[in-house]
Amino acid sequence: MEIRRLAPADWPAVARIYAEGIATGNATFETDVPSWERWDGGHLPGLRLVAVTDGEVAGWAALSPASEREVYAGVTEISVYVAEQSRGLGIGRALLDELLRRSEDAGIWTIQAGVFPENTASLRLHEAAGFRRIGIRERIGRQDGVWRDVVLLERRSAR
User: Fold this and answer.
1) Which residue, 62, 75, 101, 104, is most buried by CB atoms nearer than 10 A?
2) 159 pLDDT band (50/70/90 cuts)?
3) Taking 90 as the threshold, does the pLDDT of residue 96 lie above it?
4) Is the CB of residue 116 less than 8 Å from the CB of residue 125?
């Protein structure tokens, strides 16, 4: 497996993997994959990665700013998605570990994640990488007419 920076040419594969996550109903409140331009504008340029196996993008991870306010410049939100056929192979963990390393090199001091409580694999992944649960945002959004909770996790840089 190779982990490298996400390039614009990776977008079709990244969008497909994102759509697979949306289809599970347990990855995001999003209902449609955004355009490249919208996605690109919302994620930090140097902190987005893809995992490539056998020449194919098997997963991606990226950080987006938590706020536009300068005081929160080192606070981000993480997204990690793995292709359906590649789940359970350690790709998510490899992406997460590399993104954490690069985020610390970039001066990021806090990474937060919002995970549906039903997404136990994602909760385990984040907790194994040093994220801690800081609360539950109860009934924070509706999905298909059903109110959903989101577990809020956070990881602070040791630097």
Assistant:
1) 62
2) confident
3) yes
4) no
